[in-house]
Amino acid sequence: MRYARYMYMSELIIDFIEHMEVERGRSAKTAENYRRYLERFIEFAGDILVADISSELMRKYRLWLNRYTSDISGEDLALITQSYHLIALRGFLSYLSKRNIASLSPDKIELPKVHRKQVTFLHFEELQRLIESIPSTGKEQHLRDRAIIELLFSSGLRISELTALDRDHINTKRREFMVRGKGQKDRPVFVSREAAAHVEAYLSTRTDSLPPLFLNYSRNCGADRSGMYRRLTPRSIERLVSKYAKLAGITKHVSPHTMRHSFATDLLMNGADIRSVQSMLGHSNISTTQVYTHVTDTHLKQVYDQYHSENSTTE
């Protein structure tokens, strides 16, 4: 290997991405995202020597990111996306530091303060309307849609986790199973009796022996060349959820992630502790779960007004 001081970004990025996948166990998708973010730094600075990365260069890069406009969509980079670019670069610099390769210290990269969007969730009455908007025809497709909605709210699964499920992954009798989430971490998932019953009802109508739990029945994109149906994609589930939300007359934007928000909010409002909710959601950091705590503030205020002695009336 050449003297580290004279190593270029491009060759070390390859080493770093391989390190992420092999030694840190990150998914191929995560590694690919990091590679793309780091290549954007090369787009800005050129394929420079890593020893030439400086605080002043980083200041100019942050300004460049803030002013960046996509040639394809014409859109700017959202603040959270700018943060992802800087997180990737900070991880890269940490990797260089561990290998004793001279470059900028990773702690010199400060992330912009990102204000999280307010969490959107469904109240129980809205959830009931959503479910009732699904036709009760007994057709395989409608049974599938009901099972998907019930499972999303019951389990808090991410859409990528849901679409990756095979039939043999889920145990409807025990109503619990393991799922591999972000960072290749396994966690237990629990399912309500009603959700399990609707999954069983859907599977009972299936005459195929295909592994995927949920199939796409669309004539346009559902079947492959052999005529066999394909696995339902995240985009298809997004359209499915949005369609039924509109049929239910729900005006707020509803997505599969809204169901995950609803799952977490429902648990907290009914007394679950935040650490348990963190585990069930598969969050590696408690701060990610704490975004839900402000959602329950109104509920806690109602409890205070109802039960605090100074607010109670006595005869």
TrEMBL record:
Pfam families: Phage_int_SAM_1 (PF02899), Phage_integrase (PF00589). The keyword DNA-binding applies. Transmembrane segments: none annotated. CDD domains: INT_XerDC_C. The keyword DNA-binding applies. GO terms for molecular function: DNA binding. Residues 117-305 form the Tyr recombinase domain. Signal peptide: none annotated. Residues 7-97 form the Core-binding (CB) domain. InterPro entries: CB, DNA_brk_join_enz, Integrase-like_cat_sf, Integrase_catalytic, Integrase_recombinase_N, Integrase_SAM-like_N, Tyrosine_recombinase_XerCD. One of its GO terms (biological process) is DNA recombination. Keywords: DNA integration, DNA recombination, DNA-binding. PANTHER family: INTEGRASE_RECOMBINASE PROTEIN MJ0367-RELATED (PTHR30349:SF41), PHAGE INTEGRASE-RELATED (PTHR30349). Belongs to the 'phage' integrase family. This is Putative Tyrosine recombinase xerD. It comes from Candidatus Saccharimonas aalborgensis.
